[in-house]
Amino acid sequence: MFEITKKTNYLLAEFKTDLTFNEIFNAIILIIKHPDYKNTNDIFVFGNLSSHLAFEDLEEISQMVKKLYPAKATRNKTALVVTSSFGKALAEMWKVMASKLPYEIEIFSELESAVKWVTHK
Q1: Is the dihedral of CA 2, 33, 96, 110 positive or negative?
Q2: What does the pLDDT look like over 17-67, one tens digit per residue?
Q3: Taking Cα atoms as reference points, which of 101, 76, 110, 106 lies closest to residue 91?
Q4: Burial zone of 38 (CB within 10 Å; 0-12 exposed, 13-18 middle, 19+ buried)
Q5: Max Cα–Cα distance, the chain, nearest Å
Q6: What is the Cα–Cα distance from 94 to 56, expressed in whole angstroms?
Q7: Alpha helices in the chain (DSSP H)
Q8: What is the average pLDDT score of the chain?
């Protein structure tokens, strides 16, 4: 389960249950379809959740984002907040796979640092 919230200067996607391919897939689709997405940076908070993702899932998610990414988007940052070692390893793999996306991705262990980064011009 996840929740997407519009904050003053960013979109926040918070996962409340263990991560599955479908959960992440659905969250990305919803956040990309959000009316503010095209011009608003985002933060995905995974916290200390366990994951049921495979390496191949990360590649498929990367391809989906490339396909759905809006033309003429001005957003330029996505922050990933993870606290578990396994989550950090998955986030690092995702960052490498997503390096060809038209925005920066950074990984954080706390939300406050992620907010500072995505809201800094």
Answers
A1: negative
A2: 778 888 889 999 999 999 999 999 999 998 776 778 887 888 898 899 999
A3: 106
A4: middle
A5: 36
A6: 11
A7: 21-33, 55-68, 85-97, 111-119
A8: 90
